[in-house]
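Weekly puzzle thread! Below is a chain. First person to post its structure in token form gets bragging rights.
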Amino acid sequence: MGRTSIFFWKWSFVSAALAHLAVDEIPWVKELQGRGLHGLNGEATSSRGCFNGKGVKHWGAEPLKDFEGWIPLTLMDFVPVNRSFYIQVPKGVGSGWPAPLLFGLHSQGDQADIYAASHEFGAFGKALNFITVYPQGLDDAVPGGGDMGTGWNVGTAGDEQTCVNDEVTADCYASCWEQGKCGSCNWSGCYDERLFVYSIIQAISSVLCIDHSRVYVTGESNGGMLAHYLVQSLPGTFAAVAPWYGLPLLGYGLGAEFELVRDTKNCRQTAMLQLHGRQDEIMPPQGGVSGGFMPGWIYEPLNKVQQGWAAVHECDTVASEAKSYWDGGKQNFACFDYKGCSSGRRIMRCFYDGGHGDLPEGNVAEQITLWFLLQYRLDEAAQAAQVTNFTKILNGGLNSLQVTSHSKISKSNPQLRAFI
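Winning reply:
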């Protein structure tokens, strides 16, 4: 849930700032390059696109040029459904060596291309040689009912314990009606986002040369909630996650099926960074019942969510101050982490003065997110677990994926509203 905050004046400002500063001169980039940005511990895991992929020309684009636009997918969910994603592929990236893949998840009511345009991931991708993909959420609200816009299924549909019933604005979307998953705390559709994300990984990695050990995910608000859900329910898939002002609903801090307890070994593979405004009322960092313009939803406290992850990683039980390049400033940016993790990963959170939808000034959020994510890769054993986890989710339906091929990329998205 949450409100979309798109500030195009901010986009113009930070783009101009980035253009006047060589990325190689940014301190955190120097740090990663000094460690060997593409030489992390462990081996790259090449996708099949490294061997027989056709590159961006498969999608009707010109090779050896920056590539940006919509790609449609047709999936066999509980019914066939048209879905889509927006992608940014820098020139030459994913064509000769395995490239990292970053997922960016928009907030409720937003669109993937607008989310992409309002953040700097594409610009940094060109400088640091990674690909960014932005899945598009669906809106299948029932005509005449409550329509809360595009959003994400985070596995809570039908659960009556995640809200104060007489305070929330909620409704049951068509995909939830059809699966018998309605409840007074429903607020989004019930298509399977795990299937969607898995299908995107498969579609991209068959066309481009992707490093399966370096797949990352970030998202804001409802997209941050989905980021939490994905790393819980697809353990061993993402090397690191960075939700922005998004939290699990009550009872889902350890996963919808308590995956952090059931699959500790693979959950240990994922490092976590969370960014959150101190004055957020919509998803309060201290947890509890939301207020502001979206009252009545009950969230897990951020510190308890991260304590669960810290236990999985065998870190210290209490978070302590962590220095970063971005400390201080007008919004009093400050970070904390659970030190001593035996997994070699970090569980970290950073606060700043601001409400829901606010971010630190400039492009601090993008910078610290990339600084954090790009440090990690999956161990080989965790990558082997991916097939098992996906098979459980898809119930043997791996062959039901249909990817629309040779689709011309465009700035408009005719598939987006096919099921709205």
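Puzzle host: Confirmed. Bonus trivia for everyone else. Residues 2-17, 396-420 have pLDDT under 50 and may be disordered.
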